[in-house]
Amino acid sequence: MTAAPPTPPPGFRAHADALRAAAVRECLRHGRPDLAGRLERYEAGGTTLVVLGDFGAGKSTLVNTLVDAPVCPVDDLRSTGVPTTVRFGQQPAEAWTAAADRILEGGSPADRVDLAVAADLLASGLTLVDAPGAGGLGSASGAAGLAALAAADGALFVTSAADELTVSEYGYLRRTLDLTATVACVLTKTDFYPNWRVVHDADVRGLGVLGIRLLAASAPLRVLARATDDPELDAESGYPAVVEYLSAVLDHHAAQEAAAVADEVAGVYDQLIAQYARRDAPVHDLAAGDAPWRRRLAAGLAALDVAADVGTRTGAVLDTAHEAMASGDPVDTWPQVATRLHGGMAYAVTEHHLWRRDRLAALAEAVAEDFAAQAGTVVAHPTGQVADRYVDREPVGSPVPAPAAYDTVDGYATTLREATTAVSRAALDRFAARTAERHVRRAAELSRTAALARGATHPAAVDR
Amino acid sequence: MSLVERTRALLRTAIEVYRGSPHEARLVGIASRFDEPLRVALAGRVKAGKSTLLNALIGERLAATDRRECTRIVTWYEDGHTYRVVAHPKEGDPSPLRFTRNGAALRIDLGGLRADEVEQIMVTWPSQTLRTATLIDTPGIGSLSERVSRRAWELVAPDDTETPADAVLYLMRHLHVHDVEFLSAFHDTEVAQPNPVNAVGVLSRADEIAVGRGDTMTSALRVADQFAAEPTVRRVVQTVVPVAGLLAETAVTLTEVEVARLRKVAALPATVAESLLLSADRFRTKAPELGLSTDQREDLLARFGLFGVRLASALLRDGTAATAPGLALALAERSGIRALQGVVGALFFERRDVLKSRSALLAVQALTRTAPAPGSAAVEAQAERILAGAHPFQELRVLSSLRAGGVPGRPEVLAELERVIGGAGGAPAVRLGLDPAAGPAEIAAAAGTALTRWQRRAENPLTGREMVVAARVAVRSCEGMLADLRRHRST
């Protein structure tokens, strides 16, 4: 099997598109261009997978081999320093080369690099993110990978056949599993290590416990197989199985998205029906300042003490740093204290952002339920994915800057705490504003619908 | 009086002071150790390739490279007239062990002892290499049980206390310098004061770095240089040398049978060989016309690795190596083991007297501090005088503080300073940055120029305090070189 054929709307997506087109027509027929517009704006986001793993495991090589082009820079000396997004699109190879210095560590700092390649594999909406090496739990680069994962749909965890998965790799994998259930492991460099099968079998045993499958893949074999058009060699490379797995993930994700579209369409139909069926909806109070959903929103936000959360999480890291500073000459111990401090802080900040995101998601569900309860059946809002629509899908946190000098541990911590708390407070404000805006708009919409319904002159709609 | 003579005299005095006490035997041990070969320990994490490198250095496949029990015990390899293996249990008397050697590694029968009951195993083996250095194979640091790791650190902990080893080869695999594991390997809390004067880093399994690509050793060299420039690493080792351990071991133990098998691979057309050697699996199963059985191919992979089979067959094909000894030489050269031996020679063996004196003086001081006796205070003071005053030790101290970043200055000045005080090797030509073949006249001229330059730096009122101290030591180093030249001329 070669790569997926170009632009194949998988079954689910085509079905969802048809469903949506029919609903749009129906909305227009019943004089609701506003609802039609909303459906049209609803756009499938595609599927994003983050490629994670230790330094030198072969992540960039895996991405390049999958897309059949040297998009991500591979260097023996310098590793990938910033998460690199590779999506479908036209971009000249010079653009990739030009980006290399920004991507490889030692270049100027950038928090993300976006690249595009017209690869068959990506044509159906797959995006790959090449993450920096994990470098053990508690390293800053590892936190960057997890942060990228928070905004993605799944992960490919890369490990090389040099050795069995290490304790720190398993630790990182468990953390990955906390964030997404869509994880597969890829065993690289199987061509180079004669006893890779021993490593493979040991890894399979360990991964089996976690319910993760392992795919063996050799990049050099795949590259040659593509160059010589040798299907036997291609099968030997193991890459067809990886591509097959990615297609399955893509299909599964498309199915989930189709379900979301179906939910949305159902909601729109409900409104069309309500337009004629409901005469008297208790909707006028929905926008009131003391509506229950508003009270819940305000109380929920007040209960989210971001400063306290940041303080608790960073406090432990800081204590360790102080201890290390006290136990040795800071001049000698500073480099590793700084690295641990930086890594620990990056982790603490990432964990804090994830905590905030989870709490906001829960709050969004609760607020939506209150709103629905008050509005009655008029709203009939599918609650399945409420949280996703209300909560940011933007990457959590920005890269944490490294500390500069050994006499500023506390200053560094304070600055970081303040910055993180400020970012979180801004996110809460944004969330509150957007939630309120949505609900008030929705309330107005409902009032209009109710008014229309009272003077309904469209008997045709009642058939539905 | 030379450093060796002063140390020996001190040891004699110390034995007199402690005569008749339980410590006498320990001092006699220190004194006899002083005349024994240099003790070099191989340390590093589990699977860093310590036993493989040890075999490559000895030139025989002695140490077991698999993960059997014995690789968890500290094992000493020393020269002797007979082949002998003795276990030193933690409790009880040393007892000889039975051992067999069927073609490959030594198989030692612990004879009823458990691995954790054995303090160390002493292997006596007639060998040219072991005549110059006793090698100590340590269990891996970090990944096994805490206790086993501690044992390894106790042996090599390079702070200013008595250690069984005079010098350390610290093996590391290609890890990222920002890897948390990597940092903790170098900053174990056990190692309070890393001291780079007696340690060299080895980037083992160097062929992994570019996954066996043709230019893999060139890449490995660049990675090693990058490591060696890292402040964390500079504090612990003097330099980092890449070695493809497996290839080195095989090169020095290469057999005619293996070369004959490799010739069959070399006889294949280049494109066929390339396709065959694309992966280990392909080499196992493809090209039946090769005339090698599955077992023979498996043996070649186990001995050479994929990179080694590629390299060796290429060398035979293009005629770089025509004979078995020629191939052995070429592989040894490319594996990096020759470069490592050169570095070990320059940094350990040339400095042998200094390293051994240091070990002996530290051991004496440890004794006088913990078990004072009438007259021991004078011995301690004398040891301190030698350690503080002898020029070679001053060089080591400056080197140590230089590498720890304790001497501020312009990079090129610091590089010259490090060279002049013997950081890259003790030979005058090396210290002065001259061609190794430089004659006495050229060396004398360069040493004279360097002397003036360092005197100026030492006396310049604008020079910082640390640099003044360092520059004075450099002045002494230059004077020493000139004095040696004069002595040679007069004899």
The gist of it:
With about 475 residues, chain A is of the alpha/beta class. Chain A has helices at about 10-30, 35-40, 60-65, 95-105, 140-150, 165-180, 195-210, 220-230, 230-235, 240-275, 290-305, 305-325, 330-375, 385-390, 410-455, and strands spanning about 45-55, 85-90, 115, 125-130, 155-160, 185-190, 215. Chain A has 2 domains: about 45-255, Rossmann fold; about 280-455, no CATH class.
- Looking at the structure, the CATH topology of the largest domain in chain A is Rossmann fold
- Our estimate of the beta-strand percent of chain A is 5-15%
| Helix vs. strand class of chain A | alpha/beta
Overall geometry of chain B? globular
Mean pLDDT of chain A: 81
Largest sheet of chain A: 7 strands, mixed
Number of helices of chain A: 15
What share of residues of chain B is helical?
40-55%
Radius of gyration of chain B over all CA atoms, rounded: 25 Å
What labels would you give this structure?
heterodimer; A: 464 residues; 15 helices; 7 strands; globular; B: 491 residues; two-stranded antiparallel ribbon
Descriptive overview:
- The complex is a heterodimer of chains A (464) and B (491).
- The longest helix of chain A has 46 residues, at 330-375.
- Chain A has 15 helices and 7 strands.
- A 7-stranded mixed beta sheet of chain A has the order 3-2-4-1-5-6-7, with helices on both faces.
- Chain A has 464 residues and is of the alpha/beta class.
- Chain B has 491 residues and is α/β, with parallel strands linked by helices.
- Chain B contains 22 helices and 11 strands.
- Chain B has a 9-stranded mixed beta sheet, with helices on both faces. In chain B, strands 5-6 form a two-stranded antiparallel sheet.
- Chain A binds chain B through residues 54-56, 76-77, 79, 133, 135-141, 162-163, 168, 189-194, 196, 218, 220-221, 224, 236, 327-328, 331-333, 335-336, 339-340, 343, and chain B through 47, 174-176, 178-181, 183-184, 186-187, 189, 192, 208-212, 219, 222-223, 226, 231-232, 235, 275, 278-282, 298, 301-302, 305-307, 404-406.
